[in-house]
Amino acid sequence: MTKKAGEKMNEKDKPKKATDMEGVRLVAKGLLSTEIHDTEYAPLIISHPFANSGIVFLPGENGQEMLDITSSEENRMRWRKYLDKCIDQAASVFQICCMLNKPYRLAFLKYAQPRIEEKEFAQLLGLCWIQTEAPNQDANVSQKEFVEMFQEASAEDLMNLDERRKLAELPDEIEIYRGVTEKNKDNILAMSWTMKQETAEWFATRFKGKGKVYRAKIRKEDILAVFLGRNESEVIVDPKNLKKISLCEPAITTAVETAAEDQYKEIANQEGVMQYDF
Predict the structure, then answer these.
(1) How many other CB atoms are found less than 10 A from the CB of residue 109?
(2) Is the dihedral of CA 124, 129, 133, 139 positive or negative?
(3) DSSP class of residue 70?
(4) Percent of the chain with pLDDT over 90
(5) Burial of 248: CB neighbours in 10 Å, binned 0-12, 13-18, 19+
(6) Which one of 21, 88, 129, 145 counts the least CB within 10 Å of its CB?
(7) What span, in angstroms and rounded, lies between the C-alpha atoms of 250 and 248?
């Protein structure tokens, strides 16, 4: 039945936009064209949306060839030309996301969101969020923008079945925890919290420092998402809805010593992120 003019359209009746892959590719190529930024560990560690190291491997006449893209413009052009072709051949937004340096995937989604179908966007938002080492410190996406992204994503597509069940089983109000290290001690009003105090303690002490753990109350209706991956029982919230924030008394910690791999992630995923404004 055709709806009358002016009659309010139900959500399920709204036409679903399809993903505009050409538009998504343009966003990806815009990020590809940005400058490479060195770190003190260059060329081993650099900052760029498509690379976290200046040493890359590209197909050559004799198989894979190692290339230092920080050493010459010729090498950079060859690398960009290869990735430009890969972007053109990508059949989905997910494939392009997999090409991107992890700290830049959420920024890519922010810029590409108007061109991505709603279900696909929600699924990618959840995936990229849990794959990013420090999403609350993203230099390219503000907290307000993140909150809006989560609010626009449907729970059915953002979370898996177990996560939706966990959210549904929660009481009307729960206590949640956040661990902060000495380095990010002022980042208390962030979006990532956990339902487990021991998990918050691990985050507070994982870099061998003396961090702190905070607790807060949040209403179930104000929770934006629950992610159970990585065994973190993560709760995503809009910080303005947090209540009764207080410092926790130290408990018996389950934190373990940080491995060298975690230290590498800290450098590559946080210090090396440059800000882009399109």
Answers:
(1) 23
(2) positive
(3) T
(4) 73
(5) middle
(6) 88
(7) 6
Tokens of 204: 């507070």
Q: Is pLDDT at 143 greater than 90 in this prediction? A: yes
pLDDT tens digits along 221-257: 999 999 998 888 999 999 999 999 999 876 544 433 3
Of 173 and 263, more confident: 173
- Residue ranges in 114-154 assigned as alpha helix (H): 118-131, 143-152
Query: Residue 181 is which amino acid?
Result: T
Cα(239)–Cα(196) distance, integer angstroms: 18
CA distances to 1, 9, 156 from 6, rounded to whole Å, are: 15, 9, 29
In contact, 191 and 145? CB cutoff 8 Å: no
Residue 168 CB-density burial (10 A; 0-12 exposed, 13-18 middle, 19+ buried): exposed
Token pair for 111:
């810029």
276 has a pLDDT exceeding 90 = no
**Amino acid at site 47:** S
